[in-house]
Amino acid sequence: MHVRARRALLAGMAALAAMLAGCATQTAALLEKTPEDLPARVELEATPFFAQERYQCGPAALAETLAAAGVGATPDDLVPQVYVPAREGSLQPEMLAAARRNGTFAMTIPPRLDALLAEVAAGHPVLVLQNLSLQWFPIWHYAVVVGYDLPRGDIVLRSGTTRRMAMSMSTFEHTWMRSGGWAMVTLRPGHLPRTAEEQTAVAAAVAFERANGAAASRRVYSAAAQRWPQNLPLLLGVGGSAYAAGDRAAAVEAFSRAAALQPDSAPALNNLAFALNAVGRREEARATAQKALLLGGPWQDAVRDTLRAIDELPPR
Amino acid sequence: MKHLTRLFVFILTFSVTALGVIQPAQAALIGAGDVVAAASGQENRAHIAAMLERPAVQAKLQELGIGADDAKARVAALTDDEAAALANKIDSLPAGGDGVIGALIFIFLVLLVTDILGLTKVFPFTRSVRR
User: Fold this and answer.
1) What pLDDT does B125 receive?
2) Which residue of B has its CA nearest to A302?
3) What's the rounded Cα separation, in Å, for the pair A207 and A220?
4) Distance between CA atoms of residues A184 and A294, nearest Å
5) Pick from A215, A310, A238, A303: which is nearest to A265 by CA?
6) How far apart are alpha carbons A105 and A192 in whole angstroms?
7) What is the radius of gyration, based on Cα positions, of chain B?
8) How far apart (Å, rounded) are the C-alpha atoms in residues A77 and A68?
9) Which residues have CB under 8 Å from A312's CB, separation 6+?
10) Min Cα–Cα distance to chain A from B42, Å
11) Of the candidates A193, A146, A177, the residue with the CA atom closest to the CA atom of residue A26
């Protein structure tokens, strides 16, 4: 009787489990066939730990990844930047924004377990959002993935008040996928996530510039433009940040590349004309600006201002 | 008195001259952000900034415990997509934080079972059977 009852309970639990969550398919695939460039186990032991205060896992987790990028912010410093008292938590866009305000290059990575492990293997602790509970009764939680152990099937986290939490990879996959697999890294300017996607990286570089100013964004744009040399906004960023930092020759060089890449881009031609004028190559500047003027479109006012500056103000 | 008058004339002359030097429009570089924003056609940040000025929104922020200046600084550091997400979802975005308030005993039991099965990790004391 007891045995039968236990069997019935186990069967019920199994049915419930199947109904609620399905299988941890990514874990199974990874454990069965590990990508060749992925080490079997990694642990970023130097990642610091801040035990979270009540509900404040967001500021604590952020302080941990920021410290790994060399920024000495404490969770208390970060609370006014990310914490929403009435929601007893922190919103993901604000986690990214706060990381930028503290001078790191922050962006999300693809929501896949292999991407997550690749970042950890590259030495980047990953800040993840988990739903520790089920869809219909969510318990949201931020934690930092600092390691993994494929032979044991574990993920190692800095989580809540636990300095080193080894969680089964399949459990982690369930809890992480229930947040949509949301994950971000915070890196020193000039470093990029190994798994970065182009459009996300461009948006993140622009957001970094908005938070830290053009001159401070040189390394961010250079690193991104090196990986995606055909990207026009990135080349404009390289030129603009070089100019803001006082390196006009580098600005001319970057805008020339942008204009060569897209000869029908008014912003590229406008900026090239502006930079050429600034280095005293006035005739080339005028010819370039006139080419931009012929293109028409929404940038005409900016181009006219540049042309007027070339005609009226002698280069200093 | 004469000195004062002379000083006044000097200040007035200086101000008028300084005003005359200012150009009506300033030539400038077009930023990467301008190009990205134009390409995607999104002006969400301006939209949110305008929203933040509304009294009803400021009252709501106050209710959430966020100062108006803090809110503006936060918005300034968002990407366009993030600003769009925030604009749409400020009430429904998952906010990380582990508050379990008013959990029913039924929920507690279900989660205990799913913890043990390794589908969830709510309770610190459970150990999953899937190792």
Assistant:
1) 57
2) B27
3) 11
4) 43
5) A303
6) 8
7) 28
8) 16
9) none
10) 12
11) A177
Chain position carrying tokens 């924003």: B37
Cα distance between residue A192 and residue A190, in whole Å? 7
Query: Which whole-number Å values give the CA distances from A151 to A32, A34, A165, A311, in the listed order?
Result: 10, 10, 17, 69
**Contact status of B92 with chain A (Cβ, < 8 Å):** no
Q: What is the pLDDT of residue A35?
A: 87
Give the ipTM.
0.71
A274 Cβ contact list (under 8 Å, min separation 6): A285, A306, A309, B27, B28, B29
Contacts of B81 in chain A (CB under 8 A): 203
C-alpha angle B117-B119-B122 in degrees, rounded to nearest 5: 95
- Report chain A residues whose CB lies below 8 A from the CB of B26: 305
Residue with tokens 């982690």: A172
Percent helix, strand, coil in chain B (nearest 5)? 60, 0, 40
Chain A contacts in chain B segment 20-79 (CB below 8 A): 25-36, 38-39, 63-66, 70, 73-74, 76-79
Q: Which amino acid is at A205?
A: A
Q: Which residues of chain A have pLDDT under 50?
A: 1, 18-21, 315
Mean pLDDT for all residues in chain B: 58
pLDDT in tens, A45-100: 999 999 988 778 999 999 999 999 999 999 999 998 888 887 778 888 889 999 99
List, for residues B17-48, the tens digit of each pLDDT value: 444 444 445 788 999 988 887 765 455 566 66
* pTM, two decimal places: 0.74
Confidence tier at B100 by pLDDT (50, 70, 90):
very low
For residue B69, pLDDT beyond 70:
yes
First-to-final CA distance of chain A? 96
